[in-house]
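TASK: fixed-backbone design
INPUT:
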């Protein structure tokens, strides 16, 4: 990796081209510059000439927003077991040969790989998820990074050995145009909502009962079962208006979109899988749910009920235990409070235990993702047995729902969320997914109601009427 500090970009371009000629391979040139304040959503809408190749990421702590336009490079794998390492090694190799022009090494700027790993590489019941590989990632052509108050723009160009200079100048012109577009107010178009329907709701409740019977016999401790809801529109649904809604409606969640080959995976999830900045790592145990109350008093009462409820505490405890076991071997220090607190979101409250650790040297972000996924907040205990039951019982493909989605930069910093409260926009349909942790004393009807609450953020985000 060659890092050049604040130089003439023509010179950097020559360096990259010369390098490409020497190694007989294309070389990535990544140019980072500080720009005047840009509204991330306007940058996204204004980049609609890249429709189908855009992404947006906002974390739940409001520390970073990323918007990517266009794909300078695609990295995907169909490997099953080794997919995390394949992506990691490919990414390392690719960035090691790159030329980066930057003022400093800010996390989330420069070369950055955005995308996700499918929930279950062994599920080939594909339906709507055909176009996604077991790991699907892109390096954006243009990317806006907003860490709190600053604004950076990264331009990624793949320089070929026989590169024609004109295409480079064309990219610079395009970058200026995208920044100018983002400063004009663009209001996203909203298609008309036709209706929504639960897919096989009665069958799902029967599955819950059959899993409860097995749990009561002691075959396993926990299995998370999910179901699907389908929403129809009068015309193609694009991600713009959905993002606009989710951004405003779910300030305390990760808001993300990932446009890919005509579809868009989108959502507002409260759950972090893992974040790594230098050696510091953060993770989240999130499991156990109850409704929000209509008044402050009833809301507090429900919160207290959740904190004391044995069934929910058990659901949660299994997640804490498993995350501790996964992270402990990779950490010099690991801090996990012994009792959960409440995470209150617009439609639901959860039991929540934050995790902070100091990773031992040479621990990579994707190796942590590999160890953590799927946590028992989406899979179960024991993991392999639960995955087998999910394949048997769910009769669908989760695709990227409940899967790790996020980013990694050239310095190994990054963050992956667990893609809950999410859906796939495809043509004039949106497919939404929601699941529940099933334990021995689960009741199908009340778990069904829990999934109804978990569909609400996306139903509202899609413009549906949600009874508060
Ligand atoms: C599987 C989902 O939620 C998980 C995260 C929080 C609470 C959960 C629960 O109480 O069952 C689930 O484990 C989902 O939202 O689809
Ligand atoms: Mg639950």
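OUTPUT:
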């Amino acid at each position: 990796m060659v890092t050049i500090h604040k130089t003439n970009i023509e010179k950097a371009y020559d360096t990259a081209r010369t390098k490409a000629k020497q190694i007989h391979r294309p070389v990535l040139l990544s140019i980072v510059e500080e720009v005047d304040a840009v509204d991330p959503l306007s940058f996204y809408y204004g980049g609609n000439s890249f429709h189908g190749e855009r992404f947006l990421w906002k974390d739940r702590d409001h520390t970073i927003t990323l918007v990517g336009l266009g794909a300078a490079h695609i990295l995907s794998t169909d490997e099953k077991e080794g997919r995390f390492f394949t992506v990691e090694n490919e990414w390392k190799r690719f960035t090691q040969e790159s030329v980066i022009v930057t003022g400093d090494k800010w996390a989330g700027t420069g070369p950055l790989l955005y995308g996700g790993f499918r929930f279950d590489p062994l599920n080939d019941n594909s339906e709507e998820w055909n176009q996604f590989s077991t790991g699907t990632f892109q390096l954006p052509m243009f990317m806006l990074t907003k860490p709190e108050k600053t604004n950076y723009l990264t331009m990624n160009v793949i320089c070929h050995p026989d590169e024609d200079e004109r295409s480079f100048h064309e990219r610079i012109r395009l970058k200026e145009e995208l920044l100018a577009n983002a400063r004009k107010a663009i209001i996203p178009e909203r298609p008309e909502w036709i209706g929504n329907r639960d897919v096989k709701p009665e069958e799902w409740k029967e599955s819950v009962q059959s899993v409860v019977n097995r749990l009561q016999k002691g075959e396993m401790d926990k299995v998370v079962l999910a179901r699907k809801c389908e929403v129809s529109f009068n015309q193609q649904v694009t991600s713009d208006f959905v993002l606009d809604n989710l951004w405003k409606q779910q300030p305390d969640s990760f808001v993300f979109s990932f446009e890919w080959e005509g579809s868009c995976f989108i959502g507002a999830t409260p759950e972090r899988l893992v974040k790594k900045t230098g050696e510091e790592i953060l993770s989240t145990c999130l499991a156990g749910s109850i409704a929000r109350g209509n008044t402050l008093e009833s809301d507090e009462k429900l919160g207290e009920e959740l904190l004391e409820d044995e069934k929910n505490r058990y659901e949660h405890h299994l997640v804490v235990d498993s995350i501790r076991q996964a992270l402990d071997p990779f950490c010099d220090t690991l801090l996990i409070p012994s009792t959960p607190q409440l995470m209150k979101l617009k439609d639901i409250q959860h039991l929540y235990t934050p995790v902070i650790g100091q990773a031992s040297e040479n621990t990579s972000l994707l190796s942590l993702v590999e160890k953590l996924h799927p946590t028992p907040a989406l899979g179960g205990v024991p993991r392999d047995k639960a995955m087998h039951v999910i394949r048997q019982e769910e009769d669908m493909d989760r695709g990227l729902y409940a899967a790790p989605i996020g980013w990694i930069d050239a310095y190994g910093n990054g963050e992956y969320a667990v893609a809950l409260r999410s859906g796939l926009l495809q043509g004039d349909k949106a497919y939404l997914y929601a699941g529940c942790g099933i334990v021995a004393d689960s009741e199908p009807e009340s778990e069904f109601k829990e999934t109804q609450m978990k569909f609400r953020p996306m139903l509202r985000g899609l413009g549906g009427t949600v009874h508060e």
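COMMENT: The longest helix spans residues 310-327.
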